[in-house]
Amino acid sequence: MIEIGYSALGISLPLFVAERRGLFAEQGLAVKLRAFPTAHPLVEAIVHDGGPACGGYAAFPIAFHRHLNAKPLHYAGAVLEDSGHPISFLLVREGSGIDSIEDLADRKVGVLPTKAYREWLKLLGARHGLGYHQIEMDSTCRCMDAGEERCASGRPTMKVYDVAPDQTLAMLAAGEVDAVFTNDPGATTAVEAGVAQVWGDEPILPALLTDPHYFGSFLFDSAFVAERRDATTRIVRALDSAIRIVREEPRLARLCATGYLPAGCSDLASGLGQPRFMTSEEVDEVHMQEMADSLDAHRIVRGRVKMAPSILRAAAAPTLPRLSSTTSG
Question: What is the reported pLDDT for 203?
Fold first, then answer.
């Protein structure tokens, strides 16, 4: 039995499809899925003994941080965000009066509790004139120790709080935060409930970094890949088949997410997020390396990951099963 971890987010859709449609079993694998609320604890579990040997999907800043500081990982397939396929959303509470990023100064801002969203929020603030010391999740900011309402510099300070997907709606509705930088399923739930709206007219990360933006991937522990190469390849094949299903039958594929996501925000049928998935064979090594270099250059990750030795590909494409009008349990 192989334990596979998943982050309970919309970007993990191929993994849900792979289990629901029996794609792992078709590859001769006995698999058990293990849920994690976000990709951050998932990656921590993979890199430490006792956790699942693989899992996804996880944003690259989270994976690269552990790749460089704990042990190497391998990457299969990718999730992309581009101008037509948004993943990340800055939600602003209805009635908050927030019209610009500059308006987030002296506001309470929620963030999906991962290194990726924290770092991206810092970069977004910096691009709009909010200095690094003005974002209070930074432990180097003196105002955190002083407990002052404003930064010691006298400038307004954005106060950042971790907000899990299933807390997004409640915290915005109660006014505990004025905005949240997050993704699905929390984003769709809050907007559909009428408590928040999406800020901006274009996806944030492609505009902030590159378009398209390589967002994340499915991860493998390097020791597992070395010891169980055949099982690794079979898992990659199953995920590649799932990605093809997501493309061919998007509506029915989204129904497969029910039961994997947090209660109260498990419906992706009308999800705002429209991630673009790439199979292992479609991943562009040059663009992946450019993404890794960019994360280092922006100091989102402190170090440069060499992608070529870490990219996994399926040896051959398996037969694609068709989705029926109903999903299996």
Answer: 92
